[in-house]
């Protein structure tokens, strides 16, 4: 399976990507996760990326494209991959097309998860993540078993700095301006499928399975 997942921040791309990567046994490539792990490890890349991420802006294409190129040439991507959060600009999509052509492969589908802005703001304010193992929770929709403690590793869960409401609104603005045009880009190519993200994760998962059909 070679899949791109599109959608606004907080639409549930990561959650669906993790599920699909597991069921199809392909790597899950999240540029957001790559940036966050670089920030955590204090790398030069992390320092640069943080300046943009904290403001709700996109990390510049010249940084992001190189990262994805390196990742896609790793051997585990030969059997397929799920790209979550990349591409986010037309320039990135064009560069991705060139990378895939060089690899001699094509995207099977582009999955667009649509969620209205107001719903996103509501969802993101409740999102909590585990800083140790990366598990994702929601105070209402997917609470931890013990309050504020990760079910997997017992670390205290936190709110991502960029999930605070003011930054979420800026990220949505960035999404509409720079990423939404990709819907038309992939519609023209004929491989876009759209699902409406539901409140319950399992409901969205079922919609995704239906929309993707046989793989
Ligand atoms: P995410 O976890 O996918 O929501 O990404 C978190 C943040 O990382 C985004 O708000 C951007 O600042 C940055 N980021 C992630 N992926 C990309 C990308 N493909 N291009 C530019 N910036 C990105």
Automatic annotation (TrEMBL):
Transmembrane segments: none annotated. It is found in: Cytoplasm. Belongs to the adenylate kinase family. Residues 126-163 are annotated as: LID. Catalyzes the reversible transfer of the terminal phosphate group between ATP and AMP. Plays an important role in cellular energy homeostasis and in adenine nucleotide metabolism. Pathway: Purine metabolism; AMP biosynthesis via salvage pathway; AMP from ADP: step 1/1. GO terms for cellular component: cytoplasm. This is Adenylate kinase. Its main location: cytoplasm. GO terms for molecular function: AMP kinase activity; ATP binding; zinc ion binding. Residues 30-59 are annotated as: NMP. AMP binds at residues 31, 36, 57-59, 85-88, 92, 160, 171. Monomer. It catalyses: AMP + ATP = 2 ADP. NCBIfam families: adk, PRK00279.1-2, PRK00279.1-3, PRK14527.1. Keywords: ATP-binding, Cytoplasm, Kinase, Metal-binding, Nucleotide biosynthesis, Nucleotide-binding, Transferase, Zinc. ATP binds at residues 10-15, 127, 136-137, 199. Residues 127-162 form the Adenylate kinase active site lid domain.
């Amino acid at each position: 399976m070679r899949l791109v997942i599109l959608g606004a921040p907080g639409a549930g791309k990561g959650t669906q990507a993790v599920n699909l990567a597991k069921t199809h046994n392909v790597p899950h490539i999240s540029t957001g996760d790559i940036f966050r792990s670089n920030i955590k490890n204090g790398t030069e890349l992390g320092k640069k990326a943080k300046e943009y991420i904290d403001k709700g802006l996109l990390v510049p294409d010249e940084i992001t494209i190189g990262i994805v190129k390196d990742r896609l040439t790793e051997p585990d991507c030969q059997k397929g991959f799920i790209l979550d959060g990349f591409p986010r600009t037309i320039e990135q999509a064009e560069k991705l097309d060139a990378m895939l052509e060089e690899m001699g492969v094509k995207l099977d589908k582009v999955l667009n998860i649509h969620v209205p802005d107001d719903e996103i703001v509501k969802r993101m304010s409740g999102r909590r993540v585990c800083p140790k193992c990366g598990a994702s929770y929601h105070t209402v929709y997917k609470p931890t078993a013990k309050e504020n403690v990760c079910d997997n590793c017992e670390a205290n869960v936190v709110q991502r700095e960029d999930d605070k409401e003011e930054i979420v609104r800026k990220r949505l603005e960035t999404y509409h301006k720079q990423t939404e045009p990709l819907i038309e880009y992939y519609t023209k190519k004929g491989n876009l499928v759209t699902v409406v993200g539901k409140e319950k994760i399992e409901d969205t998962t079922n919609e995704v399975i239906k929309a993707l059909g046989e793989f």
